[in-house]
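Hello Y.,

Per our agreement to keep a running log of every chain we model this quarter, I'm adding this entry. I've kept the format consistent with earlier entries: sequence first, then predicted structure.
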Amino acid sequence: MTISVKAIIGSTSSTSYNLKVVEYLRKKYAGQLDITPVFINDVDIFSVDIESNQPENVKDFLDNVRDSDAVLFAVPEYNFSIPGAMKNAVDWLSRSNFAIKDKPAFMIGASMGVLGSVRAQIHLREILTNPMLSPALLPNNEVYIGSIHEKMDEAGQLTDQATIDFLDNVVNNFIAFYSQRKALAEINS
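Predicted structure for the entry above:
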């Protein structure tokens, strides 16, 4: 079984370490997770003025995320929080007829700083508790990759064995979490 995962890339930078980590995960776990990066660079700024007549880029973003088994949030940290573009994407998700409600999800975050986006992930976890969002977040498997520039080579391969081992563990935990949720849903249906 391969799980279809849409990875919302929280950075709009073409050189994003978070995108590089997602690409690493996409390649390494291809037999288990079918990870597709979802870019938020061109998603229009949320406004109630356009909510009922959503621009095509917003519809495409929402449909893309909706059409998945699970969601991966790749969370950079800007000024101790999530980037504005990621908040905008989440705002649209909150107005999307429950596109991610109860959908299995997990988070990763990488930064050149030692904390690896811990503050941004705390903020995002709080935002995602909104009843209009409420994905089923993998508990107790926070991925904060600090000093990423020292743990990844120029080709985008992780070189730090402790980080690789930790990601292996988190991915295995996510697959088990997803499988348990799917089995429970089948029993309850």
